[in-house]
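Researcher: I need the complex structure. Ligand is S-adenosylmethionine. Inputs:
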Amino acid sequence: MFLVARSATKDGLTDTSSSSSNSENLPSETSDATPHQRRPRYAGKNPRRFEDKYKEHQPERYAGDVAKVIAAGKTPAGSHRPIMVPEILEALALQPGEVAVDCTLGYGGHARELLPLLLPGGRLIGLDVDPIELPKTTERLRSAGWGEDVLTTVRANFAGLPKVLGAQGLAGVDAMLADLGVSSMQLDDPARGFTFKTDSPLDLRLNPSRPPSAAEWLARVTAAELAKVLTEHADEPFAELIANDLVSSRVHAPVSRTVQLAEAVRQILYRHSPKRDPELVDDSVRRVFQAIRIAVNDEFGVLDQFLRMLPDCLKSGGRVAILTFHSGEDRRVKQAFREGLRSGIYAATNDEVVRAGFEERRANPRSTSAKLRWAVRT
Ligand SMILES: C[S@@+](CC[C@H](N)C(=O)[O-])C[C@H]1O[C@@H](n2cnc3c(N)ncnc32)[C@H](O)[C@@H]1O
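Model: Output:
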């Protein structure tokens, strides 16, 4: 049936969003008694810095402005557009009364689409590892009317799904969604250190309370390990050169900031080949950030663990849909579903990966690299 995948974004990181009916769902501008706020001062006609985009941070209040941002093919600051919603809904085929899990709640974009289909009588459990965004999303969904009877949110890694289900008194569920990687909110927030467009601490953690940060990891990693990560997580052609140089220079120049890492990688590549195309150099910078993010969050390790225990968390006839944005993720999902089909754990899976349609890719470039795979439990 279908498939999805996510690709490197301009700041060099993988990302998601979708063709959903986000703009339709935005409440119209309110006329409540909120006191007038003086707009932040910024240079130029439109705010450029994340923190100055005050209208985008308040979609309920500035729906018209937010709709314009979306129409321009951008994701409003502090939000996230769900990707491939119709394809995911078709794969999950939710029925009233069923129990579903959104393993990667994020902004709650997909959750908002799943919830109505589970009523009456059903419920959704939403997981996310991010302690900063999860409370905001929970509050947003509660304000939209999704009470504790139908929506439970849990801060947890999806690698620990059996424990989460056990705590809810559930042996298995009817449907499961995982939309892997990072959200637009995480990518765009300079304080999270996911982007080298702004100068911030080099963090790159989905859960910033769990060490190590990217800076700490980089301070300890060996050149051989770093080269392996750059090759295996991002296919970086200059992996060894970059790894050897970063590790040998960190004694006198430890890397602790995003722009510092970006500049260090650029310098290494220009020293090696002074006439190198700056765009290709920045492609390497993006790959270095992506590879380190995957390593710091052990993204492949937790996905492997999730895929191993997934069949035990699904009821017979249960459906799972997984959106990936990296070839290493898609390869793992494809292999697990195909092996499960061969061994009889799964009754069906898609032969061809499903991708976002032309319209969605045009409207939301972040959907371009998305790949969707689904499976049905025997
Ligand atoms: C692409 S976003 C999901 C967006 C969401 N589908 C939506 O429409 O708003 C991915 C989310 O998954 C979370 N995440 C990534 N890896 C995770 C893991 N192993 N366990 C739980 N949450 C994870 C990230 O913190 C992020 O919020």
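Model: Summary of the prediction. The first strand starts at residue 99 and ends at 102.
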